[in-house]
Write a structure and sequence with these properties.
With 145 residues, the protein is an alpha/beta fold. It contains 5 helices and 5 strands. The termini are close together. The chain binds 1,3,4-trihydroxy-5-OXO-cyclohexanecarboxylic acid (DQA). One of its GO terms (molecular function) is 3-dehydroquinate dehydratase activity.
Length: 145
């Protein structure tokens, strides 16, 4: 099983970015932990600050990836193009947010991508990515290899 973890804008700064909201860990360090937790899964990681690059990456996942764990960052709240890409590629996608977006500013309460995703995880810190991978594993028999 191959799962792509995709992070959007500003998530390259995890570790130093607003640590009171997002914690102190870099995503690179967390990704190493994830790979140890799931040796049976082919985990890929992609990050971009550019909307079109994220869309191109999602398109390139077609036929190669069984599931996508997507933290679209602020594009969650703005990008119809990203929502359309998720719908177009037909690969099951889980929306993840490190912070609890429902407990923050009102503009974060709108997600353009949520309806195109299998489900959403918000507010559980980095653990949200792990839980998303676990969900895909639990569905393994239903997922094309
Ligand atoms: C975020 C929440 C978004 O509102 C914000 O723009 C981010 C990070 C999160 O992981 O909590 O960049 O997606």
């Amino acid at each position: 099983m191959t799962i792509a973890i995709v992070n959007g804008p500003n998530l390259n700064l995890l570790g130093t970015r607003e640590p009171e909201i997002y914690g102190n860990q870099t995503f690179e360090a967390y990704f190493e932990e994830l790979k140890t937790m799931f040796p049976q899964v082919q985990l890929q990681y992609y990050q971009s600050n550019v909307e079109g690059e994220l869309i191109n990456f999602l398109h390139n996942c077609m036929g190669k990836v069984n599931g996508i764990v997507l933290n679209a960052g602020a594009y969650t709240h703005t990008s119809i193009a990203l929502a359309d890409a998720i719908a177009a590629i037909i690969i099951p996608t889980i929306e993840v947010h490190i912070s609890n977006v429902m407990a923050r500013e009102d503009f974060r309460k709108t997600s353009y991508i949520a309806a195109k995703c299998v489900g959403s995880i918000s507010g559980l810190g980095m653990m949200g990515y792990k839980l998303a991978v676990e969900y895909f594993l639990s569905q393994k028999s239903k997922v094309k290899n």
